[in-house]
Structures are given as structure tokens and as C-alpha cells.
Amino acid sequence: MDDTNLHAPQADFNLLSQSFGSAVDGLRSTADAFRSASNEIKKVQNLPAIASSERILAELQEMRQEFRDQVTRLDQNLTATRQDLITVMTTRDYNNTARVQNSYLSSPSDHLSPLLNPLTGSAIPGFPTTPTDIGRMGEHDVNTILQEPDLQTAIAATSLASKKRQLRMHIG
To answer: What start-end ranges are recorded for coiled-coil regions in this protein (predicted)?
Structure first.
């Protein structure tokens, strides 16, 4: 053995063992600290600000769906209104043409061009087929036809003869 190493500082195994023990204890403490921090981080989602943001997000999503539903209903209403407007315009054009054709009839037995209900585009029930049929109509039948939306101003007449005149005038 070399004697030169005997006089050099020697390792203290007891101190080395204590240092390793302290380091292991420090690592255990560090691991415990990280475990504790991890547990606390998991609890952050329970903070009122975070929980409230989830409720706010849910409310916003609900409002967004309600808005979409309202837009859908509005679109459906606009489509229906557009269709109603087309029906009214088409029926009014048809009725105006029928009135012109009816004004050219030369005989009381000529067939009338029937008027249509402007709101539905459907035939008016009980509409006379000839000018002679108007003269044969009872007051109830005349009133029923005069109740149609396009003819309502004629109902103000008081006598049956006046109502028939108004009906003839409206028919063309």
C-alpha cells in the first residue's frame, strides 16, 4: 500500500451515510410536496370562478340555441307570409281578370267567371254561375258571398235588392 494516501483526507462513511439519508428524506419531502400540490390543483375546478364560468358557458349555449330556434321560426313565418302574399296577389289578378271577362257578358244566361277567395285562392262557395242566378239568390246566399274578404264593403247595403246590385257590381 502506498503511504502517501494515508495522510490525505479520508472519507467519513458515517457522514456520507447521513448525507444520503438526508437526500432521500429530502426527495421524500419533495415527492410529498408534489403529491400535496397535485391534490390541491385538482381542487381548483371547485373554485367559484371556475364553476361560474361553466354555468355561464351553459347559459350562453342555451341562449345560442334559443336564438337559432327563433331564427328558424322567423324564417318559417317569413316563408308562410311570402306564400300568403303570393296567393293574395295571384288571386287578385285572377279576380280582376274574371271581373273584366264578366263585364263583357252579353246574355243573362252566359256563364260568369267565378271569383276566388283572395286569402286562400279557393272557389267561393255558392258563387252564381250566371247573371240570372244572382236574381234567384236568397238573402242568406248573397250575404255569404258578400262576406268574402274581397267583397265585404258590399255587405253594408240594407235591402236584398241593394246587396244583389252590389254583388253584380263586384262580379263585373
So the answer is: 50-84
Looking at residue 164, its pLDDT comes to: 87
Per DSSP, the three-state class of 123 is: strand
> For 128-166, what is each residue's pLDDT tens digit?
999 999 999 998 898 888 887 766 665 566 788 888 888
Alpha helices in the chain (DSSP H): 13-42, 48-103, 131-136, 139-146, 160-171
In this structure, are residues 120 and 111 in contact, taking their beta carbons and an 8 Å threshold?
Answer: no
Q: What is the number of alpha carbons within 13 Å of residue 108 lying toward its C-beta? A: 5
Residue 12 included in any domain: no
* Partners of 99 in beta bridges: none
Distance between CA atoms of residues 105 and 108, nearest Å? 8
Nearest to 151 by CA among 104, 81, 111, 98: 98
Residues 83 and 121: their CA atoms lie apart, in Å, by 11
pTM attached to this predicted model: 0.58
User: 105 lies in a domain?
Assistant: yes
